[in-house]
Amino acid sequence: MRTIHDMVTLHNGVKMPQFGLGVYKVEEGQQVERTVQDAIEAGYRLIDTAAFYENESGVGKAFRESGVPREELFITTKVWNSDQGYHETLSAFEKSLEKLGLDYLDLYLIHWPVKEKYIDTWRALEKLYKEGRVRAIGVSNFKIHHLEDIFAHSEIKPMVNQVELHPRLSQEDLRSFCQDHNIKVEAWSPIARARYLDDPVINKIGGKYHKSASQVMLRWHLQNDVIIIPKSINRNRIEENANIFDFELSAQDMAEINALNVNQRFGADPDNFDF
């Protein structure tokens, strides 16, 4: 049976927790500090933030005060769109590292594929990786054609692609492409921002296992070999989200959840966004 401490192995050999905490829209200061502390106490070791979230300082303070050794934590942040470009990204990286209070990152991602900039941004990530400033590099919100563009202009393939992914947007083609190229897929909004916790199919399945709709969806991700970072500021919900390692969805359950896909996005389309 899987546990909260299970890892996936990235194509460079680095081990990354499959389950963690996202902190989008968690307020800087006491709220994010308490949230990260609660998650670490619940066994979380992957924390995902971003420059755009404006809470990197609080995240850093929380894990420094947690008492957990740095090497046991896996910290991700992202370069924002207005900071993209080769030199701009290198500068943004230093600012994020300073706010987090770290001397290296575990994973650094390009937040969105900004046209005419993300190739130069990726070159900066390659430099940081080669210098040992970050253990792994990747992208976020990249579609297949963006990844193919990276392949054509880079030395190193992304290790992770973090995208919107949930039962209503199952991204099967993208997941298959990433699997073929040994890129791990990570889901943001893994429970679709709680938009359909009343879904009858998911609740019927949850009833079989005495689990909530959120727990069923998170388990579905795990069994699809997807990395997940559910966000909550509620300690009970943080603990509930992590309580998904004592049951397993059947093949029939998985098929029924797969059938819910309607390619519905709740976030921006990476080909049509304006930030």
Question: Could you name the CATH class of the domain at 14-195 and 225-233?
Answer: Alpha Beta
Task: Going across the biggest sheet, name each strand in turn.
Answer: 3-4-5-6-7-8-9-10
What is the N-to-C order of secondary-structure elements (H for helix, E for strand)?
EEEHEHEHEHEHEHEHHEHH
| Approximate strand percentage | 5-15%
CATH level 4 superfamily of the domain at 14-195 and 225-233? NADP-dependent oxidoreductase domain
Task: Bin the helical content.
Answer: 25-40%
- The CA-CA distance between the termini, in Å, is 42 Å
Total strand segments: 10
* Structural class by secondary-structure content: alpha/beta
| Oligomeric state | single chain
Low-confidence stretches: none
Mean pLDDT: 97
CATH architecture label name of the domain at 14-195 and 225-233: Alpha-Beta Barrel
**Mind describing the biggest β-sheet?**
8 strands, parallel
Number of helices: 10
What does the radius of gyration come to? Answer: 18 Å
By CATH, the topology of the domain at 14-195 and 225-233 is TIM Barrel
Dominant shape: globular
